[in-house]
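Per reviewer request, we include the raw input and output of the structure prediction for the construct analysed in the revised manuscript.
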Amino acid sequence: MQAVVDSKQKIIDAQEKRIASLDAANARLMSALTQLKERYSMQTRNGISPTNPTKLQITENGEFRNSSNC
């Protein structure tokens, strides 16, 4: 019986870790989205057409980088 409880606890711990990871990735995505919205808003307010918007790429660890930095 204890083995079953231990097994389920390991699963719960792994799920909690995954949720924390997803929360962090979501925060980074929301931050990037906000930055893009602000940049787009500033371009349209200044009369600049965003015909060549900056492209963001996401790395394997969930971080963002500009395609111009590649």
